[in-house]
Design a protein that fits this description.
Elements (H helix, E strand, L loop, with lengths): L2 H9 L3 E6 L5 E4 L1 H7 L9 H6 L18 E7 L6 E11 L2 E10 L1 H29 L3 H16 L4 E7 L2 E8 L1
Antiparallel strand pairs: 1-2, 1-5, 3-4, 4-5, 6-7
Helix pairs in contact: 4-5
Length: about 180
Amino acid sequence: MSEDLRAPLNDISELMYVADLETHELLFINEAGRKTFGVEKLDGQKCYRVLQGFDQPCSFCTNSQLIPGENYNWEYTNPITQRHYLLKDRLLEWEGRAARLEIAFDITEAEAEKQALKSMLDAEQMTMECVRALYRTQGLEQSVPMVLEWLGHFLGAGRVYVALLRDGLLYNDYEWC
């Protein structure tokens, strides 16, 4: 491939590589990819070895899902970089070989924000359910054990306690296991 075409591909800040569809041999990896994965020379290296640290082709390899003229979009957290990526794969011909082009957009921070927002919304919903249960149910003896169970499941806890301080001593008044 001519240097005139490789140069702009190397300037892209996203990770980008091209791999042979049949052999999984890396045919090209841009500068961002080379730096991220410590690649100096391709020398027939396999994409699954260099980019994932695997000894065999990835169980999630998208080669069979590629359709000419269309992108295949998916997300994945890379085990080497520990970063979460939006991946865009495309079938193409590279120097006479059928190949997969993949561009990886790092969305780690956006994914973390999304998960934090989801957790916050889930916690808010759980809080509202607990308040509703306490409001609807007659007496603490019925509602508190139910709320403790919900909280235990929500938090993934094995036990939940409500302890009250009386006369300088802590008493375990309610418990869910």
